[in-house]
Amino acid sequence: MLRFDGVSFHRGPEKVISDVSFEIRAGEFAALLGENGAGKSTLCRLSNGLLKPSSGRVTVCGDDTARTRTSVIARNAGFLFQNPDRQLCQNTVLGEIVFGLEHVVSDRAERERRAGEMLAAFSLDGGRDPFGMSRGERQQVALASILARKPRMLILDEPTTGLDYRECMTIMGVVSRLNAEGTTILMVSHDMEVTADFAERALVLSGGRLIADGPVRRIMRDVKTLDEASLLPAQIPALAVSLGGVFSDAFTVDDMTALVERANATRGEAAR
Length: 272
Ligand SMILES: Nc1ncnc2c1ncn2[C@@H]1O[C@H](COP(=O)(O)OP(=O)(O)O)[C@@H](O)[C@H]1O
Ligand SMILES: [Mg+2]
Hints:
Elements: E1 2-11, E2 14-24, E3 29-33, H1 40-47, E4 55-60, E5 63-64, H2 70-76, E6 77-80, H3 93-101, H4 108-121, H5 135-147, E7 153-157, H6 165-180, E8 184-188, H7 192-198, E9 201-206, E10 209-215, H8 216-219, H9 223-228, H10 235-243, H11 253-271
Helix pairs in contact: 3-4, 3-5
Bound molecules: adenosine-5'-diphosphate and magnesium ion (MG).
């Protein structure tokens, strides 16, 4: 779905992305991690053709972004900006979703059917003005208008920042359901709990370099990499690492509960 081959990107004299290579296959759920200024948003913009590499090559579904029109790339890769207001331009929620479909679906009835599906998925009122809604709701409107186009890959730049817990779970519920149905996900996040709960793979950026790429379960325990990227692991893997011993493999609350219960049972038997 997405491939970076030795990609660098300069902004004036500053090298914002340095020699990055990776490949994301259809159906994966990958998280892109890194501290502020690490280059995550720049890497997202390179992934959808809004920026072109200074050197190296980016391909989306086999199309070289340097030689493919952004509108063609956008059909394969839907992109949710870090700030949803950058992609909202209509007076009503329904208008916004239908607008996004105008160049993708020629049949008007089909556009309205798809828009209706999205309003239901996010429990949105189609008649409301997006600019009178909360940030979390506007984020959902922006996501709904992208998803109505049914992209094969979804690139999300910090989709849960600034949202309350319920809004965060609504967005992540929709995203993980899409992933289960085959949509490829690349999600920028600095929320390690959300990453641990939803992503399978993590790519770690530090100073524009890709310093790690592997299963989230492994990377959450990789203290050296996380330190280098100034990231803190999610709470359960952090606890697992500090407890060590039989607890060192715990990754979820359920894992940890089961291990504690087993340890208690063993102590109980020993006491008897
Ligand atoms: N529009 C811009 N003009 C100049 N420098 C920028 C711009 N956007 C980002 N940068 C710089 O590029 C680097 C990477 O930024 P960015 O990709 O936004 O990082 P992240 O999303 O990980 O916080 C930073 O050093 C940032 O200051
Ligand atoms: Mg960013």
